[in-house]
Amino acid sequence: METTHRVFVEDSRDLSTLEDDSVELVVTSPPYPMIEMWDDLFTRLDPAVEDALEAGDDRGAFEAMHAQLELVWDELERVLVPGGIACINVGDATRSVDGSFRVYPNHARVLEAFESRGFDPLPDVLWRKPTNSAAKFMGSGTLPPNAYVTLEHEYVLVFRNGGESRDFEPGADRRYEAAYFWEERNRWFSDVWTDVRGELQDLTEDATDDLRDRSGAYPFEIPYRLICMYSAYGDTVLDPFWGTGTTTRAAICAARNSVGYELEEAFLEAFDDGIGEIAALSRSVGRARLERHRSFVERRREAGDVPGYDAEHYDTPVVTKMERSLRLREVSSIEGESGRYRVEHEPLSVSSD
């Protein structure tokens, strides 16, 4: 199996390099409005943002920032296939402007924007990303009533483009081989994820401190899960806010195609420096999934409840008929650089089979 991966150093408010209905899934984490680390970016996109902040017009700044994101949402409506899924990882912001502290509900604003463009909202996910700082509590400490709840979660908002789900040809191998294990379904499709911790995506050792400071990447597990949940082999995943390339890395490990857009070429250079590690990552991710499944089966067996079906490609039982054709892939080779990559995948090699 071969997949292709492209990264454009371009502004994602204009995705004219992509044709209509050319991607099946969007997985992205945009810059969060009213988070201070993104003020400079939003100001470059629209100087009115800085003017509003300097004037203490927090609501005006909030709306101006979201107006820039909405130009991207307009493009997503065009390039995403009917029935395709968009997964938007976004967090709310807390901030004091002109001496007044409040929360800025980014998730609600994004939800409104997508629904107004004809997307159907689907059940979303909260993922908890606890911080361990001793000073994480805001306000008056232990004195009521002026202390504030600390935000330790982000949202994965899920939307379908239009009212109908995607169609597949009956018995499509690319869909059945992309199945997930029954116990993965139960964990992944829970509305609260407590087993994924927030962290900065590791960059290469020679990346500059400035590049690290500007990295707001979500953990690899977030896009990897979403890609497995909402796409099949042969699909293309788009990330219009590419950053350090976590979505592309996850798409490669999941054996899907991908497209990314990024304003800063330095992130692409850092991705090229670490591309040699992706083959080993894909192998370890696949083997970990299979080993977790085998441990799950063993626990079921000890409880006297052995799953009733056999996997076709692995020496293990599975719970449902739909899992029988499941086939994991690993990377055998990667060619290319500077935003154009061709990846060869082969069935996961597991010595214990």
Automatic annotation (TrEMBL):
Domain DNA methylase N-4/N-6 per the UniProt entry, residue ranges: 23-270
Species name: Natrarchaeobius chitinivorans
Keywords recorded for this protein, A-Z: DNA-binding, Methyltransferase, Restriction system, S-adenosyl-L-methionine, Transferase
Family: Belongs to the N(4)/N(6)-methyltransferase family. N(4) subfamily.
EC number: 2.1.1.113
An individual GO BP term: methylation
The name this protein goes by in its record: Type II methyltransferase
Enzyme class: transferase
Catalytic reaction list: a 2'-deoxycytidine in DNA + S-adenosyl-L-methionine = an N(4)-methyl-2'-deoxycytidine in DNA + S-adenosyl-L-homocysteine + H(+)
Single GO term (MF): N-methyltransferase activity
SUPFAM superfamilies in the record: S-adenosyl-L-methionine-dependent methyltransferases
Entry annotated with the keyword Lipid metabolism: no
